[in-house]
Amino acid sequence: VQLQASGGGLVQPGGSLRLSCAVSGSTSSISSISWYRQGPGTQRESVATITSGGTTNYADSVKGRFTISRDNAKNTVYLQMNALKSEDTAVYYCKARKPSGSFWGQGTQVTVSS
Q1: Residue 4: count of CB within 10 angstroms of its CB
Q2: 5: Cβ contacts below 8 Å, ≥ 6 apart
Q3: Half-sphere exposure (CA, 13 Å, Cβ side) for 72?
Q4: How distant, in Å, are the alpha carbons of 24, 86, 90 from that of 44?
Q5: Cβ 109 vs Cβ 37: under 8 Å
Q6: N or C: which terminus of the chain carries fewer CB neighbours within 10 A?
Q7: Average pLDDT of span 77-88
Q8: In whole angstroms, how large is the CA radius of gyration of the chain?
Q9: End-to-end CA distance of the chain
């Protein structure tokens, strides 16, 4: 499985960005896809997850502001981020989970600053 994250950039506080995670390769048996982030000097943390059945869950810090969704026809998972705060600044990664293990994409930088 290969994952390609994109869509990061510089945005002002209160602004929005949409991240994309394009999934390719052996996509069968993927049970969930998650977005993680790692800010400066912090550990990588889970932000949002969508399961193969469509169930979603979010970190408390992003509930009501971020939305994870997927387009099965495009094999792409999105993370819509609204009302961004400076503390959302991080490198964002997507991860696919299969019975055989977890597969990570490269990160995309999100910087929230005025």
Answers
A1: 14
A2: 19, 20, 21, 92, 93, 94, 105, 106, 107, 108
A3: 8
A4: 24, 17, 9
A5: no
A6: C
A7: 98
A8: 13
A9: 37
Render 64-89 in DSSP notation, one character per residue.
TTEEEEEEGGGTEEEEEE-S--GGG-
At residue 52, the pLDDT reads 94
Query: Backbone dihedral region of 7: left (phi > 0), alpha (psi from -120 to 50 degrees) or beta?
Result: left
CA distance 97 to 110: 23
| Average pLDDT over the chain, rounded to an integer | 96
Residues pairing with 74 in the sheet: none
DSSP state of 63: T
Q: What angle do CA 54, 59, 60 make, to 5 degrees?
A: 125
